[in-house]
Specification:
This protein has about 280 residues and is α/β, with parallel strands linked by helices. It is built from eleven helices and eight strands. It is globular.
């Protein structure tokens, strides 16, 4: 963590603590805003495969969402979903590999990410993007999501028609939102239980659901698709302890691939992981 990041975290911590003195509600709203705001937008180059792809634009919550469609008209369709503060351009290697396997590939920058409009996003926003993509471009045979993209897929699948022939790949998914909040509070150095409660209250008011509802473990019990779950034991963003609980549920449609030493980011770039995912796509 560099000095600019440390100063930014200190500023946010002081701001929320001051707000909590004035109004617990306002402190909760500010914590929610921070939790839903990517620290930076991807400004790298457009991936080569997308330069020749069909560019797609649609509106979600009055914001433009930008994406691409490769290998149009192929017999199977895949949707790639990146993680928080990332971009579809970072998953170009999966787009290339899947087009080579004769998949039509859809990939989008989520709202508040990359070329798409917006400043913030929460899990329901991202899951609504998944459902909108299916509505606009047709049923998806294979979903691949990393981190935040994983919970977006899981929540969306509860409302999408699918069966055991539908395939889902979860790469280091954000398994429990409650754990993500705990992690964010640790990073920010926030210790007031009242602020955390205020944040939980804001989430409930916006979604009509408690924080615990935003859980891939919960959603998996309502999903019929074949699932490949890839997770690293040393992931410091989406903790392995949450995944082990899902493993103990012994759901027949969910299989696990555990790695070690790849962490949260390197896991989706790993050649062995990519091969396992491509083999799963071939089944």
């Amino acid at each position: 963590m560099n000095i600019q990041q440390k100063l930014a975290i200190r500023f946010l911590r002081v701001k929320i603590n001051l707000l909590s003195v004035i109004s617990k509600r306002k402190a909760g709203e500010e914590a929610f805003r921070i939790f839903c705001t990517p620290p930076a937008k991807y400004k790298g180059k457009e991936a080569v495969i997308f330069t020749s792809a069909e560019k797609l634009i649609f509106s979600l919550n009055e914001k433009k969402v930008i994406g691409y469609r490769c290998n149009v008209g192929a017999p199977k369709r895949a949707l790639l979903l990146h993680g928080f503060s990332s971009s579809c351009h970072k998953f170009d290697n999966y787009a290339v590999a899947l087009t080579q396997k004769n998949y039509e590939v859809l990939a989008f920058d989520a709202p508040a990410h990359g070329a798409s409009e917006g400043k913030s996003i929460h899990a329901l926003d991202y899951s609504n993007l998944v459902k909108k993509v299916v509505e606009l471009y047709g049923n998806v045979d294979l979903f691949v999501g990393h981190s935040f993209g994983g919970i977006a897929i899981s929540l969306a699948m509860e409302d999408l028609k699918h069966d055991i022939n539908t395939k889902i790949v979860l790469i280091a998914p954000a398994t429990e939102t409650s754990s993500a909040i705990e992690g964010a509070f640790v990073v920010l150095g926030l210790q007031k239980a009242s602020v955390k409660k205020a944040l939980h209250d804001v989430i409930f008011e916006i979604s009509g659901k408690p924080v615990e509802w935003f859980s891939i473990r919960r959603a998996m019990n309502n999903i019929k698709a074949s699932v490949l779950w890839v997770h690293d034991e040393d992931d410091d963003i989406t903790p392995i302890r949450d995944v082990r609980k899902v493993e103990k549920d012994q759901l027949p449609h969910v299989r696990f691939l555990f790695t070690k030493g790849l962490g949260h980011q390197r896991i989706y770039r790993d050649a062995a992981v990519k091969k396992a995912i491509m083999d799963f796509a071939d089944e």
